[in-house]
Amino acid sequence: MRLDGKRVVVTGAASGIGLATATAMAQAGAAVVLADLSAEKGAAEAQRLRSEGFDAAFEALDVASPESVSDFAQRVLGAGEVHVLVNGAGWGKAQSFMDNEPEFWDRVVDINLMGPIRLARAFLRPMVERNSGKIVNVASDAGRVGSAGETVYSGAKGGLISFTKGLAREMARYSINVNCVCPGPTETPMLMAVPERHREAFLRAIPLRRFGKPSDVADAILFLAGDRSDYITGQVLSVSGGLTMA
What we know:
- The chain is an alpha/beta fold.
- The protein has helices at residues 16-27, 39-51, 66-78, 102-130, 142-145, 151-171, 189-192, 196-205, 214-225, and strands at 7-11, 31-36, 56-60, 84-87, 133-138, 176-183, 236-239.
- Helix 1 packs across helix 9 and helix 3 (66-78) packs parallel to helix 4.
């Protein structure tokens, strides 16, 4: 799978699935813009990729801020066209719904749903004018089947799945593919923050008997970003070791 000549934006690229995705894109020949709220780590990862001979740059981004998204898009598009947008930034924590505060709801929805919506709007117009492009949204299997202790997160990711399908229908006339990848429990900082007893329960329920690796999810995103998925749009692909078979 090659992406030579393509320019790719990956949000949430300073760690976890986002970083694995940015690395896979760079290794496939793309010029990659890593975006993250963590400027120090994101810049360091972009520098690492450049030191390995890849085309990588970093831009700071807060997906929860409309102003940050607008400024980010202007900077990135001002430097050249974008062929692929990967909405990889996400956030949540395990907590009973009855213990949630409204501020927590707002943050979860802003990052996991409104962030991808804002970014899609910011990068779509040039894709429409060019009559080509790919958007890959990273949701979660929690958004497909629900997850106890992640109720609002499940709702936000479920909204992202539905947004993906609606946008795919609207953008098909412009030859723009919009798809969604849903990771199951994956070895990321977010999973490590889950209580150990919950992680053990997850592991027992996964038919392949292991947690996903960020690279497992990155491989699925790479496929949906490349030419071999040109006839695929509006689809939801779970990468969960068989945990969900919806």
